[in-house]
Amino acid sequence: MYLTHLSLTNFRSFARLDSDVSPGVNLIVGNNAQGKTTLLEAIYYLSTLTSFQASQQRELINFLAARQPLAVARIEAEYQRGERTHHLEVRVIQEPNGNGGVRVRREVLLDRLKRKSSEVIGHLNAVLFLPRMFSIVAGAPAERRQYLNLTITQVDPRYTAALSAYNKALSQRNALLKQINERGGDPGQLDYWDELIAQNGATLIAARIQTLMELEDLAAIAHSELTHGAERLRLIYRPAYDPLTDPANQLSLPLDAPIDRRGYSEGEIAAGLKDALQAARREEIARGMTTLGPHRDDLHFLSNGIDLGTYGSRGQIRTALLALKIAEISWLKKHTHFWPVVLLDEVLAELDNQRRADLLRRLANIRQALLTTTDLSLFSPRLIDSGTIWKIADGRLER
Ligand SMILES: Nc1ncnc2c1ncn2[C@@H]1O[C@H](COP(=O)(O)OP(=O)(O)OP(=O)(O)O)[C@@H](O)[C@H]1O
Ligand SMILES: [Mg+2]
């Protein structure tokens, strides 16, 4: 799939932007603080309805516009998905809340009709690569869970629904655990939430098991090519609740022992998780929080048996991440039947010549990529000739 047009209104630094986008490689060249990352953020936001840099939606609304009680940041794109043309629009709306303050809400329109977020996530597929994604490999576990969630929601609406239900149930259950801990009460009240956590949690765990196996296969091939066969990449899923019948024994296994959990059905995982919650109930009441379940999962990146999160060199981590992103592109193609739009924010500057050449060679196969840079000389003359070059300055994009 590929974007043909992008319009932004009061989105961050862009009061107004209206531009065609070319198929193939789009190189966006500009100095610092001209809006390069913002452009990619806008496109990724359409894809996932999540900003990779705003903690609150209101940050997306242009500062000046947001001084008024009523302000709307609007992102609109026209894109080609197979034979069909679609129009996607997201409005982030700040409006008076009736008490003298303001509130922020969102509207999503696909082909001009209002839709629920869950119906739209993953309609426009994108793969994003930022230098700071280093943290997927070497940062906190929450970064890896976020990565898994954003990736799987692109192809699996059931996962999206389960994630939302799980998170709601989790905060209710945690509140109840805390309340029972502090003020006492009937622990039987937890049964209802245990059930929801187990059902939805099982959907998440099963999808993570499957996805990580698939991504590992694809990433290992890319990684082997990138390292000329010298290193072997493995993605190791470490679920907080492990459906393996005897997780106690598994802890003594080496991290890279091959474990295939695909034999467990969702029903089996749910039943096991529910039992585990029951068994942990006293302890969870004492701690006032839910300690088991996919909100505590982790994932390890191993190269030749070495955990890159702990022992990886910068170059090794970068290569593993590049392999992961390459895997994600073909994984999305496999599941959606369309090439995703690839968004690379100043990634090339971070790569050595060989890895840069490898990445650019792969981009030649896909339908569309947007690459930002402050320095056009990083790109080969051939790529510059075959791509579309955009100059970005003062909120304007010019071919
Ligand atoms: N809500 C907002 N309203 C107005 N301006 C904003 C808003 N949020 C961010 N900005 C500004 O937008 C500008 C462009 O930011 P962006 O990160 O897109 O630049 P960039 O071209 O990627 O720069 P760099 O090369 O440094 O990465 C920044 O000066 C930033 O302060
Ligand atoms: Mg930037």
Features of this protein?
alpha/beta; Rossmann fold; Glutathione S-transferase Yfyf (Class Pi), Chain A, domain 2; 2 domains; 13 helices; binds adenosine-5'-triphosphate; binds magnesium ion
Walk me through what this model shows:
This protein has two domains: 185 residues, 3-Layer(aba) Sandwich (Rossmann fold), CATH 3.40.50.300; 174 residues, RecF/RecN/SMC, N-terminal domain (Glutathione S-transferase Yfyf (Class Pi), Chain A, domain 2, Up-down Bundle), CATH 1.20.1050.90. The model has no long low-confidence stretch (mean pLDDT 94). It has 13 helices and 15 strands. The chain is globular, with a radius of gyration of 23 Å. It is of the alpha/beta class. Magnesium ion binds next to helix 1. The site of magnesium ion (MG) has 3 residues, from helix 1.
